[in-house]
Amino acid sequence: MITSYAIYVTFAFLGGALVLNLWRLVVGPENLERLLALDTLYVNAIAIFITVGIVLDSTMFFEAALLIAMMGFLGTVAFAKYFLRGDIIE
């Protein structure tokens, strides 16, 4: 019984974090803050996928979280390189 409450609280906190990240992504005054919000959005999406995988007892969600983590890392590196140097491929 207590685990179901913990799952609901976890989803509520992760949903609140997603909303705050989306707000910072849209409103952020500088591009680097938007990049940081996008990176944090990836991390929260990974946490949601892992939580859903635990609730449904399915390994498919863990594999999806791994793919999101890899694509999020590559995207963050590409954006950071673009903001620092002006191009991605040298």
What are the key terms here?
mainly alpha; flat; Helix Hairpins; single chain; 90 residues; 87% helix
Describe the structure.
The protein is mainly α and 90 residues long. The chain has one domain: Helix Hairpins, CATH 1.10.287. The chain has helices spanning 2-27, 31-56, 60-85. The longest helix has 26 residues, at 2-27.
User: Overall pLDDT, averaged?
Assistant: 88
Q: Helix amount, in percent?
A: over 70%
Q: What percent of residues are in strands? A: under 5%
CATH architecture, by name, is Orthogonal Bundle
Radius of gyration: 16 Å
CATH class: Mainly Alpha
Number-wise, the strands total 0
Order of helices and strands: HHH
Query: How would you sum up the major sheet?
Result: none
Shape: flat
In terms of structural class, how would the helical and strand content be classed? mainly alpha
How many structural domains?
1
CATH topology grouping: Helix Hairpins
**Secondary structure tally, helices:** 3
Report the span from N to C terminus.
Answer: 56 Å
